[in-house]
Amino acid sequence: MEAGSPFHRYLDSALESFGIEADETERAVMAGVWSIWEPGMTLLRDADLDRVEQEMNPDLGRPPAR
Amino acid sequence: MTALDLPLREQAAGIASGEIDAGELLDDCLARIEERNGDLNAIVATFPEESRKMLDEAPDGPLHGVPVIIKDEWALPWRAETVGAAAVPGVTTHPGESGPYRALRDAGAVIAGVGNMHELGSGSTGNMSVYGAAHNPWALDRCPGGSSSGPAAAVAGGLVSGAIGADGLGSIRYPAAYCGLTGLKPTFGRSAMEGHHIANTETIVSGPLCRDAADCRLLAAAMFREELSPGEALGLRIGVIRAPYWNDSTPGVREACDSALESLRAEVDGEVIEVEIPEQDLILPAAVLVAQAEEVAHLTAENLNALPEELSVLNRGVLKLRGVLPGSLTARGFRARAQARLNLSRLFDQIDLLAWPSVPAVAPPLADPTIELPSGMTSADAGNARQGVIANLTGVPGINAPVGLDGGLPVGLQLLAGWGRDALLLDAAEALERATDREFVELRPAAVA
Predict the structure, then answer these.
(1) Of A43, B166, B226, B273, whose CB has the highest number of CB atoms within 10 Å?
(2) Does A65 touch chain B (CB under 8 A)?
(3) CB contact under 8 A, B394 and A27
(4) What CATH number was assigned to the domain covering residues B3-224?
């Protein structure tokens, strides 16, 4: 992932905004991990989830109410 | 072969009948750890005095006098958990009576040691730990799987016959697959979890790793504090999702799992049905986000800037990345979870089990945990997570059953069932053992055999 990519711009801005320090090696790790996560995260970001009804206080040990 | 090499249930029966001396069994176990742990690094702490005290005070439970290992993820009254790490961000752990400790104690079990684990539970390979990596008994240069690396290596290495692990995104099933064991990820909330450092978890459960399903049933019953009576697994409808879970596994894994699936189908006089889960591509990112949301409150600038150098750079980077992930994305992860649970509950109207390989490739080298799949080279973590996280995202139980070897390394078949049907998974795993004449649960690494 190239420096100046949208991810790097977001990362630089977010780390600075939250006051989180990260050295070059840690930033390289973040970029590497994000390159693995990004396709799935993009799908999730773009998915049509508006019609999905959220579960109220879900009991994850049981099937959802239907 | 000694009593220490017997299944958990036979050790318990032998102690109950007086044929096995529990004190001698514990001594043998501690001696075995001393002898073999140098190669395996499966155990990070033993405490003979405390173990003997547990034995002296052990009630007449179903595991009376039986030595077991517990993962470094729970407190013991004499030891705080370290989660395989130099530090747990924002958390100070303390000695205490965690739920899994109490469950084992009340069943009469004796905790002989603490099992190693992947640092912070954040990986599927077990190749990172503040104690150094645990090693796979099948090949010491290979990953044992994670994050319950030590419990798996300890059982496969013959140090004990049963161990308690934890599964937050597949962390019992992956090491069970890599080490040729049976490992049960229970239905969410069913097994003892009190005292876990992530008190608000919605993904993590404790569960057993043993050599076969009958031992898992015994150990799981202790963790559940309820009977898991065997039933007849007949006429099962087994759902199969070929892409990507089967098709993107290595040929050796696919062949072993295909053969096991056919054996299981024939044994239970069942049927195999090709099925689909809508929006299945959202399951992995949703699981990653839901799981990371459980700890994100601790990921403040103050805590993140204080991460010690002793923590791996990989985890330092990942934790800082998680600290800045947009909340909107995480919220969409929870919405995708609701959808996945609904889709899965509809699917389980049509089938009894889902089946696919627990991991898409056998254990990779510790020094390079990458795997080559039909879709290309990838990290073992990425490939494994794709196969396993659906159970944690939705709460359903899952089990790994050993089904063969590929290049001398174990292959595991994963079975998933509907919520609360943990006993069905054990029944199915036992049916698979019968169908294969117990060939794969009786296999032992050359170093152990």
Answers:
(1) B166
(2) no
(3) no
(4) 3.90.1300.10
A66: nearest CA in chain B? B342
CA–CA gap between residue B11 and residue B6 (Å, rounded) = 6
Q: Do A60 and B188 touch (CB under 8 A)?
A: yes
Structure tokens at B324: 């800045």
Nearest-neighbour CA in chain B from A3: distance (Å): 16
Q: Is B339–A49 a contact, with Cβ atoms under 8 angstroms apart?
A: yes
Alpha carbon of B166: minimum distance to chain A alpha carbons (Å): 16
- For domain B237-435, the question of CATH label 2.50.20.10 is answered with no
Using a CB-CB cut-off of 8 Å, the residues of chain A touching B190 are 61
How deeply is A55 buried, as exposed, middle or buried, from its count of CB atoms within 10 A (0-12, 13-18, 19+)?
middle
**Do A17 and B252 form a contact (C-beta atoms < 8 A)?**
no
SS3 state of residue B304: helix
Q: Locate the domains of chain B by residue range.
A: 3-224, 237-435
Per-residue pLDDT of chain B in tens (449 residues, 90 and over written 9): 899 999 999 999 999 999 999 999 999 999 999 999 999 999 999 999 999 999 999 999 999 999 999 999 999 999 999 999 999 998 999 999 999 999 999 999 999 999 999 999 999 999 999 999 999 999 999 999 999 999 999 999 999 999 999 999 999 999 999 999 999 999 999 999 999 999 999 999 999 999 999 999 999 999 999 999 999 899 999 999 999 999 999 999 999 999 999 999 999 999 999 999 999 999 999 999 999 998 888 899 999 999 999 999 999 999 999 999 999 999 999 999 999 999 999 999 999 999 999 999 999 999 999 999 999 999 999 999 999 999 999 999 999 999 999 999 999 999 999 999 999 999 999 999 999 999 999 999 987 76
Q: Where are the beta strands (DSSP E) in B249-300?
A: 271-274
Pairwise CB contact (< 8 Å): B338 & A58: yes
Give the pTM.
0.97
Contacting B residues, span 155-184, partner chain A, CB-CB under 8 Å: none
Where do we find the tokens 């517990």? B70
**B92 close contact with A: CB closer than 8 A:** no
Q: Do domains B3-224 and B237-435 have the same CATH topology?
A: yes
> In this predicted complex, what is the ipTM?
0.94
